[in-house]
Amino acid sequence: MSLDIKEKNNYLVFNLKIVPGSSRDCIAEILDGALKIKISAPPEKGKANKAVIAFLSKKLGINKNDIDIVSGLTIPTKTVRVKNIDREELVEKLIIDNL
User: Which residues does 79 contact at the CB level (< 8 Å), separation at least 6?
Assistant: First the structure.
């Protein structure tokens, strides 16, 4: 299975499945074209969303401001867009190095 990544207006857009309240922050698997990420932050008051952005920023080596959650702010399934990274580097840093 592969991560479904779209290119739109100089952004890479892909889906996440977030599991908040986990024992640690990690990439778990690719599930139906979406990247499943476990986050230790609880799903309250935007804490898990902030943790997701911080986690992706660290993994990808880009600024937090280069990552936006464009849909799914209040549900586990989210769509994110990132800039200042190309598709190959994103795949390498999120998938190849972690699965």
Answer: 13, 14, 15, 16, 69, 70, 71, 72
- How many structural domains comprise the chain? 1
Backbone phi, psi, residue 59, to 5°: -65, -40
Convert the pLDDT of each residue in 68-98 to its tens digit: 999 999 999 999 999 999 999 999 999 987 8
SS3 94: helix
**Helix (H) or strand (E) run with residue 19 in it:** strand 11-19
pLDDT per position as a tens digit, 45-76: 999 999 999 999 999 999 999 999 999 999 99
- φ/ψ of 77, rounded to 5, equals -90, 120
Indicate which CATH number applies to the domain containing 79: 3.30.1200.10
DSSP H stretches of helix in the chain: 47-60, 87-91
Domain hosting residue 83, numbered range: 6-96
Instruction: Confirm whether 1 is domain-assigned.
Output: no
